Amino acid sequence: MTKLPRKLQLLAPAKNATIAIQAILHGADAVYMGASSHGARVAAANSIDDIKHVADFAHLFGAKLYVTVNTIVYDNELRNVEKLIKGLYHAGTDALIVQDMALLQLDLPPIALHASTQCDTRTPAQARFLQDAGFSQIVLPRELSPDEIKEFSREVEVPLEAFCHGALCVCYSGDCRAGFMATGRSANRGECPQMCRLPYDLIDGTGRKIIKNKHLLSLLDLNRISLLSEMADAGVSSFKIEGRLKDETYVKNTVAAYSKALDSIIAASDGRYSRSSYGRADITFTPDLNRGFNRGFTTYIFPPDKAVKMAGLDTPKMVGIRIGTVSKISKGYIDLSLERGVKLANGDGLGYFRTDGSYDGFRINRAEGTRIIPASMPDGLRVSSTIYRNSDKIWNDAMSRETARRTIPLSMTLRAVSSRVIALDLKDLRGCAATSSVVTDQPLQQAHTPQGQQRQRVLEKLGDTHFHLDTLDDRVDSSLFIPASILASLRRNAITALETSWHAKRPTEKRRPHKNIIPLPEGTEITYRHNVANRLAEDFYRSHGATSIQKAVEVSRPDTEIQVMECRYCIRRELGYCLRTPKGKDLTPPLTLDTGRGTRYAVDFDCSRCIMSLHQTR
Q1: What Å distances lie between residue 326 and 329, 334, 368, 384, CA to CA?
Q2: CB 36 within 8 A of CB 101
Q3: Predicted confidence (pLDDT) at residue 102 exceeds the cutoff of 90
Q4: Which residues of 54-64 are buried (b: 16+ CB within 10 A; e: fewer)?
């Protein structure tokens, strides 16, 4: 039996319905967006009506809509969440991305559930447990290496989802309590205060400040566009772009870039892979990931190269693309020495590092060649300072216009059933077929000129649909005249029938059955790190053999010191002081991170697992 190609999915973020539709138009196979509540980005909530609008559009191309309900849920919220999910199901949502195990205990419709990255699924055994508990797709931690992903792939049969681009949390997702313990705002409730983006002093065991005022926990952004083939070969089926708070331009550009890269991989795969949705995305611009918001790029743990830079110590902001240096600063204007080919525009955003080492920026009010008049003169700028462009007005204006059209190729066959009956047959890549026919008032008459080209011009007028004509097999004698009104009616009716056929046969994902007999993969003790915040989550774990359950810190704040972060990223390694190297002895333990504003973290290192952990100190 011939093995079917494994379907690969490009999964794009969307803050709202407009951006979701643009993601699909630019080549996404699926989008994920927040519901009206309980999504891990409280600033990216959407109504049921908006979600239905996106689902209806996505389904035209066989694309999927996933909705995030991936925060922990409190007891008094369970019934509202249950009601919310029923509304999402009826709106056409294909699957929910969830964290809280209570959702497996609710009275839900048969909607598919995906295990969010907040489930912190670090081992193949955990992945198998979640699959058997009823999850249809598992989002892997960003921290896994290719070989580790292969182990997951061998253990489970459900698709594996992995991030390929966007912002990186320094901590394993779902295992960060730094924000809640410091500010009361919890990442597990969608309110991350981004403690990892703050500047810190690094203090050694003697009290000496080794590093001052650097962003020691702020990771660069993930970029694995050159590693998609390796990810697919390791077992990844869904390639996820981070960014539910990003703007439309970012999503358009990033999706277009990754869609093109994925198509190239599939074309070279000898039939091993195919795309999971349908349609051709025609893009009007050349994607450039460097133009989108980024903190600089890293491939992180994939591949596990010790030389890979992971952190952006100088700033958590987007620095931008280097365009030149300052040659003169005068009252009201600045002269630049620009790199070849660089042209500035009114409204561009520029950035630079101040004399104190911090990053700052300003907007160009007027550009006159190499001379710029800023909206306000920047402070801390000096002659010879490197200048970066972090906002390109011309690019942004171009991207604000229509930049893509997505259509499904259509095969048409025009034929004469009899002297008075004309039929139009349609077939598309979704596997759908439809026929429309018309009975004329009288037999077709002879035309004065050949009719083939005229018929094609009428039948290919598909501009108000999501189709384009791929092939036309005109089997009617070209000497016979068919009125354009009849051809147009055949086309419209056949398209309507084709869409009816698709909606009837479109495959839908259903929730996997929950096997209650499966034991917990890590013993019977459930700690605060499992984020149990309600009685139904407790019931879930007890039904799988838990004998003791500790509540999440959000509902039972501990009065003792706890671990607030666990990271695959290591400060020692990043700074060149790995304990496995001779230079590691140059830093006297224990190490402490200090914000200078009352928050301090003791930093511990488990070199056997290559893990760094943080504990908040008093």
Answers
A1: 7, 7, 15, 5
A2: no
A3: yes
A4: bbebbbbbbbb
* Tokens 């066989």, residue located: 62
pTM of the predicted model as reported, rounded to 2 decimal places: 0.96
Give, as one character, the DSSP assignment of residue 207. S
Residue 220 CA: distances (Å) to CA of 29, 287, 314, 481 = 26, 20, 11, 65
User: Alpha carbon of 86 to those of 26, 96, 274: distances in Å?
Assistant: 30, 11, 32
Element at 520 (helix H, strand E): none
Instruction: Identify the three-state secondary structure at position 433.
Output: strand
Could you check whether the bond before residue 590 is cis, i.e. omega within 30 degrees of 0? yes
Q: Which two tokens stand for residue 468?
A: 């384009």
Paired residues of 428 in beta bridges: 410
| pLDDT of 618 | 65
Task: Give the chain's radius of gyration (CA, Å).
Answer: 28
Please give the angle made by the CA atoms of 177, 179 and 184, to the nearest 5 degrees. Answer: 100
Which residue do the tokens 């559009």 mark?
A: 57
Q: Which residues are CB-neighbours of 403 under 8 A, at least 6 positions away?
A: 26, 252, 256, 283, 284, 285
Assign 187 to helix, strand or coil.
helix
Burial 471-488 (b: 16+ CB within 10 A, else e): ebebebeeebebeeeebe
Side-chain half-sphere of 127: how many Cα atoms within 13 Å?
23
pLDDT at 558: 86
